[in-house]
Amino acid sequence: MLQIIQKSIAFLVPPVCPVCGENLIDPSRELVCRDCFQKVSLSFTDSGRVRVSGRIPVYFPLVYNGPVKHMMHLFKFENFESMGKFFARAMMSKLEEEGIDFDIVTYVPSHPARIREKGSYPTKFLAMEISRMSGRPVKGLLRATRYKKSQISARDRRENIRGFFEAIDEIEVEGTVLLVDDVITTGSTMAEAGDVLYRAGHKKIVGITAAGKV
Ligand SMILES: [Zn+2]
């Protein structure tokens, strides 16, 4: 009976591309449809592309536009873990391509209220996946002290985000800390998180995000 119900549901709702709604040709293997995938493959960044936010270099494998933006929304706000896994793999490939070595993985923290409200923790998810692939341990080094950011111009964002994060404690980390975030836009979040880590004693920090505004 259950099988019949499942089949009829499958019949009523054919598996579609979560980005554009087109039917998928091979739903067991496709994350998005072929059209969207083609667009995503055009969004990969060239090697050597890095942004400097505050005192840390930030690498990102994808340009934040088109289907990438849509996929990020599905991952962050609709809990599509398959998208997160795709992003984490792209981030790992980028780190390998750039020859970035690191000893510990950490992430830009979410406020506990955000985690409760959305039922997910995207940056931690990405960090855990990168940890699994790289064999480096993941450790939460930062906590978020406030939840809502006010909507203000990019120019003022750096001021606005000051004091948003604090170091959990003075954990001695030998070597390089990889700081993970989902997207880099103005760079103010990475700059602030990097600063807090630096002041807590972590002198070698490299940032990685799934996507970035260019
Ligand atoms: Zn599509």
Describe the structure in your own words:
With 214 residues, the chain is α/β, with parallel strands linked by helices. The protein has a single domain, classed as Rossmann fold (3-Layer(aba) Sandwich), CATH 3.40.50. The chain contains 8 helices and 8 strands. The chain has helices at residues 2-12, 34-42, 66-77, 81-98, 112-118, 122-134, 154-161, 188-199; strands spanning 51-53, 56-59, 62-63, 104-107, 142-144, 165-167, 177-184, 205-212. The strands form 2 sheets. Strands 1, 2, 3, 4, 7 and 8 form a 6-stranded mixed β-sheet that branches. A two-stranded antiparallel sheet has the order 5-6. Helix 3 crosses helix 4 (81-98) and helix 7 (154-161) runs parallel beside helix 8 (188-199). The longest helix has 18 residues, at 81-98. It starts with a helix and ends with a strand. The model has no long low-confidence stretch (mean pLDDT 88). The structure holds zinc ion.
Topology at a glance:
Layout lengths: L1 H11 L21 H9 L8 E3 L2 E4 L2 E2 L2 H12 L3 H18 L5 E4 L4 H7 L3 H13 L7 E3 L9 H8 L3 E3 L9 E8 L3 H12 L5 E8 L2
Helix pairs in contact: 3-4, 4-6, 7-8
Bound molecules: zinc ion.
